[in-house]
Amino acid sequence: MDTLCFRSEGGPLQLQLRCGRSQLGTFDLRLYQSEEGEAVPGWRRRGWFRCPELDAFALPRPAASNHGRVVRCRARIIGLLAPGAACALFVALLQSGRKIGEVSERAMPNAPAAVISLSARLEGMGGAPERAAHPSESERG
């Protein structure tokens, strides 16, 4: 699972969605207390992809309260330019309106539609993140 780092004492956080190769599709974005935890009450966003500026959603405040939480997004992408063309789902983390990290998942569908699922852990840090997104401990080997 990828990790998105942010400044714990920094400004408000947002998640911004976009899909590559197509803007047609739906998403279901959820926030969980931890990898095994329950959903954060009242925090679920779903709908049709519009544009990255409109597909941005505020996370609970203060920013530090999101440390250790997990974001999961499932997207159904339709209207691909060509059957078999690759498409991707991108989830960016913004702090105080500035992009500080991004994770993505790519799919090679067999039909003119694709389902893509992506998960990332949110990690609060004391200072500025040294890297926007990095592999988890288990992925480093």
Summarize the main sheet. Answer: 6 strands, mixed
Classify the beta-strand content into a percent band.
over 45%
The general outline is elongated
User: Over the alpha carbons, how many angstroms does the gyration radius reach?
Assistant: 15 Å
Terminus-to-terminus distance: 13 Å
Low-confidence stretches: 128-141
Structural class: mainly beta
Number of strands: 10
Q: Assembly state here? A: single chain
Count of DSSP-assigned helices: 1
Output the helix-strand order: EEEEEEEEEEH
Q: Which percent bin holds the helix content?
A: under 10%
Strand order of the largest sheet: 4-3-6-9-1-10
* Mean pLDDT rating: 86
Task: Tell me what you see in this structure.
With 141 residues, the protein is mainly β. It is built from one helix and ten strands. It has one helix spanning 137-140, and strands at residues 2-7, 13-20, 25-32, 39-48, 56-58, 70-78, 87-95, 98-107, 113-125, 133-135. The strands form two sheets. Strands 4-3-6-9-1-10 form a six-stranded mixed sheet. Strands 5-2-7-8 form a four-stranded antiparallel sheet, with no helix packed on it. It starts with a strand and ends with a helix. Mean pLDDT is 86; it is low at 128-141.
